[in-house]
From TrEMBL:
It comes from Coemansia spiralis. This is AMP-dependent synthetase/ligase domain-containing protein. Residues 23-408 form the AMP-dependent synthetase/ligase domain. GO terms for molecular function: CoA-ligase activity. It comes from the Eukaryota. Gene3D superfamilies: 3.30.300.30, N-terminal domain of ligase-like.
Length: 547
């Protein structure tokens, strides 16, 4: 069953992302839409449009048009200029990610043949080492730069300094006020598909981490609902505090488009300590908080609710204006989501990659809430659900496959699903386009009776036991039965609790034949809050071997 997004507009206007966004925001050019939480530097729509246009003209003049332009920085809001300018010059934006290894950094630069990289002095030495001998130009966000070799505006386009090192200059050298510059425009869907807007490096199962995923211009911005939204009034809902790194693909997409389209303002944080986050929420009377699992987990560990305030040690914070928390990573435990909602007394919404900007806009502007889901497919996306090669019908679960003009590569290679992107997510898409995510395909438990078990379904039953602190379900392969699993559960008991594993699993035994488990001191989790199921599987197999 193919499901078409119900959010499609009547007509699909042609044009690149900057054209769509800037045209939508034109009447509100003096509005402040982006604020640096640390420096309090404020960006108006007019500033973003003007600086991006000047930078695009500079990129074009230096011969960088149509190329991948990169950023190696996760703190400087001038990344927004690079994002729009790279597309206006006919190229694509790439975040190199400051947490990657030196080898991965160099590999990504070579793979995408990026001619220019923007960074801050904080990362300059590391970047110069990674680009040595590549002839890449480095531009500094800082107002002043003191490189090893002094360069002029002419030198910028000359490659290297003649000694194998890269040229280095301040970003101001590329800001050109050129009235003759004409931004590259997208004239058709095929044109858009051939010109990706930005590159990201997904961690989807089966995809090489070094192979970039290209996201096209012809995006959710073709929705009339988003390009002509109601402007938010000057209220708490209008201010969003963001602790998501804005230089990555998801962050820049939200931070660049969302405030300009919705009329909200985003206060972007660079440091993400628990006290810093709560203090920023209080200072700006924020109505929404955009965060990652790791940030919320740290707050969950340290903070307590005391009346109408949240306390960490001797400090307390008034965050009563907060209405909604957007968490970027999916699949946190239900218990964790309930604790966060109770702590902040705010609704928690998980974001999904194909709907995130639309979902934020919908929630902020008080569109109807969709319970138990991560929202509706964004405009111009169709989806279908497949399990073991079989097409699923309405209400059935399987792997979600999507077809979207945002994706210009890495789609399914088999002929039956040609043109669809394999998300690796197990869930369903209703006939109305509502997306429900249950698990990763790699975490499913394929039982010998032909049924598929979802770890979260087992965990919710076990976690309901009053003496269970935490738990995680996972699959253990059945010997001599390829493709079949036995459900296992690792259980963390409450202190001094006397528990019997058979009693805990008794209500699950009929639905999940052969289910078994063991007690442990803690559940190891990754930075998204997901249990490290492979590690638990190894523990279970070792215990079984010893017995």
């Amino acid at each position: 069953m193919i499901v078409i997004s119900p959010m499609q507009s009547n007509s699909l206007p042609i044009g690149d992302i900057p054209t769509q966004v800037f045209r939508s925001a034109e009447p509100y050019r003096n509005e402040v839409v982006l604020i640096d939480a640390e420096s309090n530097h404020q960006f108006t729509i007019d500033d973003i449009i003007n600086q991006s246009t000047k930078l695009a003209a500079g990129l074009a003049r230096c011969g960088y048009g149509g190329r991948v332009i990169s950023v190696f920085d996760n703190t400087n809001l001038q990344c927004v200029y690079v994002y729009y300018a790279s597309m206006m010059a006919g190229g694509a934006y790439q975040s190199l990610g400051t947490s990657i290894s030196a080898k991965s950094l160099r590999d990504r630069i070579i793979l995408t043949q990026t001619p220019a990289i923007f960074t801050s002095r904080l990362h300059l030495a590391r970047l110069k080492d990674a680009t040595r001998g590549l002839g890449v130009r480095i531009y500094i966000f800082d107002p002043e730069c003191t490189p090893n070799v002094a360069v002029s505006a002419v030198d910028i386009c000359c490659g290297s300094d003649g000694q194998g090192s890269c040229c280095c200059a301040p970003i101001s050298h590329l800001l050109i006020d050129d009235p003759t510059f004409v931004p590259v425009r997208i004239t058709s869907k095929a044109d858009a598909m051939a010109k990706p807007a930005y590159l990201t490096y997904p961690t989807i199962h089966g995809t090489s981490p070094q192979q970039p995923l290209m996201l096209s211009h012809y995006s959710l911005l073709s929705s009339q609902q988003l390009t002509r939204p109601p402007r938010l009034l000057d209220s708490a809902n209008r201010t969003v505090v963001s602790a998501v790194p804005f230089s990555d693909a998801h962050g820049i997409n939200i931070i660049a488009h969302f405030p300009m389209l919705s009329g909200s303002r985003v206060v972007q944080m660079s440091s993400h300590g628990s006290g810093s986050c709560l203090g920023t929420l209080e200072k700006w009377d924020a109505g929404a908080f955009l965060a990652t699992y790791s940030i919320l987990a740290e707050i969950d560990k340290k903070a307590v609710r005391i009346g109408d305030r949240i306390a960490i040690g001797a400090q307390s914070f008034d965050v009563s204006s907060l209405n909604v928390i957007f968490m970027h990573e999916l699949r946190a435990t239900q218990a964790f989501k309930e604790r966060i909602s109770a702590l902040f007394q705010a609704r928690l919404v998980e974001l999904y990659g194909y709907i995130e900007t639309g979902l934020i806009a919908g929630v902020i502007t008080e569109h109807p809430r969709i319970d138990g889901s991560v929202g509706v497919l964004c405009p111009n996306v169709s989806a279908h659900v497949v399990l073991n090669g079989k097409e699923m019908e309405d209400g059935q679960y399987g792997e979600i496959l999507v077809s979207t003009p945002r994706l210009a590569s890495n789609v399914c290679s088999d002929s039956k699903n040609a043109g669809y992107f394999c998300t690796g997510d197990y869930g369903m898409v209703t006939a109305d386009g509502v997306v429900v995510i249950k698990a990763r395909m790699s975490d499913l438990i394929y039982m010998s009776n032909g049924e598929v078990a979802v770890p979260a379904d087992i965990e919710s039953v076990v976690a309901a036991h009053p003496d269970v602190v935490d738990c995680a379900a996972f699959a253990v392969p059945v010997k001599d039965a390829e493709g079949s699993h036995i459900p296992h559960v690792a259980v963390v008991p409450a202190a001094k609790a006397s528990l019997n594993m058979d009693e805990i699993l008794e209500s699950l035994a009929i639905k999940y034949p052969g289910i078994t488990g063991f007690f442990t001191d803690c559940i190891p989790r990754n930075d998204k809050g997901e249990p490290k199921r492979a590690h638990l599987r190894d523990l279970a197999c070792k215990q079984e071997a010893r017995s």
